[in-house]
């Protein structure tokens, strides 16, 4: 991967200087995983930072018995994970699973921390993105009493804004399984299925189960439903 493409793909790295980007690329390790494969197990947290080159992953919270599993977040192309565990060495009870075929780049914890100390612009940018994630968590908390359709619209709009690909008739995102979509939205699975089917019938979205995509056709209406206008 060229330095320019590396910087453009990952918002975290846009502020980094060329020397930093060159160094990170030189020590990066590439990974590929098929759908449903564990990308990062709970005992591996804190070893590296992972950057998503393509595909989609979910971050899950595990119970002590491993029977109660909840999806905390869905991440796509251009995002990263593992940075919190580098700063916080406490035991983890989460793992990361590939929702689709996924390509990743990893950088070891030690080397990434060294880079943060050497490049203050990258350090500042990382803090900005971490604050942004905290704001998204706060928004989810604020929405807890909103109707399920409003909450789901917020999730769809956020996925489109953060990871969606512009195509001819709208914004395309991965067709996330209803269980995972329900978890990150904090609503029931049956509610999720009904709302998605209704949005499809209204022509606001188009679900392609074969291509495993959801096309956000009427983003304006979805945004209005989400209460962001």
UniProtKB/TrEMBL annotation:
It comes from the Bacteria. This is Crp/Fnr family transcriptional regulator. Pfam families: cNMP_binding (PF00027). Signal peptide: none annotated. It comes from Stenomitos frigidus AS-A4. Residues 12-133 form the Cyclic nucleotide-binding domain. SMART domains: cNMP. InterPro entries: cNMP-bd_dom, cNMP-bd_dom_sf, Env_Response_Regulators, RmlC-like_jellyroll, WH-like_DNA-bd_sf, WH_DNA-bd_sf. PROSITE patterns: CNMP_BINDING_3 (PS50042).
